Amino acid sequence: MNPGLVVILLLLGLSFLGIPIYIALGIGTLAALNLAGMPVLVLPQRLFSGINSTSLLAIPFFILAGNIMSRSITSKLINVANALIGWIRGSLALVTVLASALFGAISGSGVATASAIGGLTIPAMKKEGYPAPFATAVASISSIMGPIIPPSITLIVYASITNVSVSSLFMGSVFPGCILAVSLIAYALYYGKRKDLPAHEKQSPRQIAHTFKDSIWALLLPIIILGGIFGGIYTPTEAAAVAVGYSLIISLFVYKDMSFKEMPGVFVEAAVSTATIMVMVGLSKASSYVITTSGLPQQMLSLFSSITNSKFVILLLLNLLFLIIGMLMEANAAIIMMTPILMPLLNAFGIDMLQFGIVMSFNLCIGLVTPPVGMCLLLGNQIGETSLSNSLKAMMPMLLISILVLMLITYVTPLTTWLPKVLA
């Protein structure tokens, strides 16, 4: 059997048995090395080279910034969104989408967004009479903007494998993230009007100004991060470090809603999440080496080429493939596993690596709300205390909207490539 195929089969099989993905990836790589007759020393060598990258330092910093925010700054972002659009029917659903977009512009994580924003807005929506399945659905699907709107941890992982610029990937994901946010807001408006959902009293300009004044330090955080990156003031890695320092100062000394006693727990939680991702990224270099030398990418290229010579059809087939993979596997693991296999195919059909990275990340983020993995949906369902089937039913229109946006950014290339070219 092809050693590269052994890696993939063992990764999938062991993951289904409940073994952590990074352990499954390591076992699969070791088995493939043994089958190919390669020295085991390849594994630690490639693992070290895989994590020996300064760009990967952005991952722990963004995770830590998200953890700090979830204990402090999140409520301020929700207050601002509520002040702006709280008077509209179904406003809490709109607030959830808008707050998720703002939080995603700092944390880069879907699960963190679902926990921080959904943990506050789902109970609030239920209290105001929103159907529990809809409240769960809108908070869950909004959370996928965390890894889509820059900064994105999945895009950082993709960049570490392909050597595509992290900054360019962040710039290219701006339009897809904004289009998804606007589309979800439009659906929430339609749903709120059709179901006659409650609305809050419209705030006066003075009240809105007071809310903005109270939340200004929280609002400055995404501006500082994205403005610094896009303006060329600092790299994404430096921006992540700035985000941690800024959020710590604001949480501890300005808003004072986080204590020093909470800090050890915050750091430990971020360290555990970081360790899992970093080990996966390191092991991906070893597994990529085995997969590449096994000739599996060339076999995949031959298979797709035998089906069609159309770039349009190839992109459609890849999207279908990743929609299925996203249902079964965590996004970072899927990127690590599939990117080395598909790179020859992308080069052969002239598919832009920057565009494909954003399309693949967007596609796999949809998997955050599709069973059986669907971490954001499961988390939202737990917060909303409703049945999974009802939540899925309520989410279907929004899921369809997400897939339509996916098709749009797949076939309208400037949506992902124009901004990086302009800002370059």
**Structure annotation, total helices:** 21
Largest sheet: none
Q: What share of the residues lie within helices?
A: over 70%
Number of strands: 0
Explain the layout of strands and helices.
Elements: H1 3-16, H2 21-36, H3 42-51, H4 58-71, H5 74-85, H6 91-107, H7 110-127, H8 132-142, H9 153-162, H10 166-172, H11 174-194, H12 205-230, H13 236-254, H14 263-294, H15 296-307, H16 311-328, H17 331-348, H18 353-366, H19 375-384, H20 388-411, H21 414-423
Could you provide a short overview of the structure?
The protein is mainly α and 424 residues long. The chain is built from 21 helices and no strands.
Tell me what the structure shows.
The structure is a single chain. By secondary structure, this protein is mainly α. It has one domain. Helices cover 79% and strands 0% of the residues. It contains 21 helices and no strands. The protein has helices at 3-16, 21-36, 42-51, 58-71, 74-85, 91-107, 110-127, 132-142, 153-162, 166-172, 174-194, 205-230, 236-254, 263-294, 296-307, 311-328, 331-348, 353-366, 375-384, 388-411, 414-423. Helix 5 (74-85) runs antiparallel to helix 6 and helix 8 (132-142) packs parallel to helix 20. The model has no long low-confidence stretch (mean pLDDT 85).
Supply database-style keywords.
mainly alpha, 79% helix, single chain, 21 helices, 424 residues, 0% strand
